[in-house]
């Protein structure tokens, strides 16, 4: 799929913004699990992902205040009727993606609770490999030498991160790492399905709104039956942090993530996960923590890999010229 250069640049900007949000979100999860002694990944996943339902009232408010334009599929057709088929497609897509996304979030949160932050961050970035394989098999994404070398650099950076990190506590380490690996595979499946379903003018508000409502309604019996004691232990402070995490780590970051998938490619967007590693290193520098030469090597490799895949996936000049007229018509994306 070809994209205009403006859309692609916007997609790369979304990737960088999401990487910043996810870096802070991982620290916040550790705060909730460890410092506040609320090690309940299922409850965290349910509350945070149910926050997606806020897309419906938010989009309605923005429409009422004329901050955004009507979504593309509500344009009247030649005979004056309103095209609603794509609204149903957005709702169907949300219902398909909801279980994949919930499972990925649940397994990753459980993994973060059982392993180290470094290990969970490194393992999560391996989803780029699974995403590339899925994109080649199901989306027919073109493979280039530069793209493959970029992915190899990212994976080498991940390995260097593990070599340079302190040895983590082994208790529960294996199960935590295994859960993070499963989460990486589920992220790849989610990203590939998302790319297959959405189109450049697809409304992310409806898609994620449906995901939030589905998790809120369908997940309620699961959470209330399995975690009654955990719900009773929830303090207003913990609930506030869960909502804060849900709004920023889920609602805002995933909206930008979906736009990145729309405007770039699944592989390019997933490689952006690796940017959390150098961002974590930067945070450690600010906090004056000891860093090893392996850590700096990891940051260099990951950044090199991200740049390589980004450049290899950018739209060609000829393709951008051919689509310039379409991009001018649909370039102002609707939320």
Automatic annotation (TrEMBL):
Gene3D superfamilies: 1.10.3730.20. Residues 10-159, 175-310 form the EamA domain. Coiled coil: none annotated. The chain crosses the membrane at residues 6-28, 117-139, 145-164, 176-198, 204-226, 238-257, 263-282, 294-313. InterPro entries: EamA_dom (IPR000620), EmrE-like (IPR037185). It is a multi-pass membrane protein. Keywords: Membrane, Transmembrane, Transmembrane helix. Signal peptide: none annotated. It holds the Pfam family EamA. It is found in: Membrane. PANTHER family: SOLUTE CARRIER FAMILY 35 MEMBER F5, SOLUTE CARRIER FAMILY 35, MEMBER F5. This is Uncharacterized vacuolar membrane protein YML018C.
């Amino acid at each position: 799929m070809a994209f205009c250069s403006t859309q692609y640049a916007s997609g790369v900007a979304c990737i960088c913004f999401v990487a910043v949000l996810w870096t802070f979100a991982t620290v916040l999860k550790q705060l909730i699990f460890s410092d506040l002694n609320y090690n309940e990944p299922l409850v965290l996943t349910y509350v945070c992902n149910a926050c997606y339902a806020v897309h419906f009232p938010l989009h309605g408010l923005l429409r009422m205040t004329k901050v955004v334009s009507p979504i593309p599929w509500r344009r009247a057709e030649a005979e004056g009727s309103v095209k609603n088929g794509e609204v149903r497609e957005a709702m169907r897509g949300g219902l398909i993606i909801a279980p994949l996304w919930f499972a990925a979030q649940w397994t990753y949160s459980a993994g973060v609770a059982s392993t180290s932050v470094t290990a969970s961050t490194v393992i999560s970035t391996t989803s780029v490999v699974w995403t590339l394989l899925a994109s080649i098999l199901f989306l027919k994404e073109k493979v280039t030498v530069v793209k493959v070398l970029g992915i190899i650099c990212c994976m080498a950076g991940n390995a260097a991160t593990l070599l340079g990190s302190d040895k983590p506590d082994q208790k529960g380490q294996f199960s935590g790492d295994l859960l993070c690996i499963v989460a990486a595979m589920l992220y790849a499946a989610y990203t590939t399905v998302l790319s297959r379903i959405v189109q450049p003018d697809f409304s992310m508000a409806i898609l994620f709104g449906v995901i939030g409502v589905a998790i809120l309604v369908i997940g309620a019996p699961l959470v209330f039956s399995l975690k009654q004691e955990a719900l009773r232990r929830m303090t207003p402070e913990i609930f506030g942090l869960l909502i804060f995490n849900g709004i920023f780590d889920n609602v805002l970051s995933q909206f930008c993530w979906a736009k990145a998938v729309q405007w770039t490619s699944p592989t390019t967007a997933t490689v952006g996960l690796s940017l959390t590693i150098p961002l974590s290193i930067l945070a450690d520098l600010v906090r004056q923590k000891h860093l090893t030469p392996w850590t700096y090597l990891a940051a260099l490799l990951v950044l090199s890999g991200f740049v390589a895949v980004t450049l290899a996936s950018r739209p060609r000049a000829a393709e951008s010229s051919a689509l310039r007229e379409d991009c001018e018509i649909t370039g102002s994306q609707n939320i």
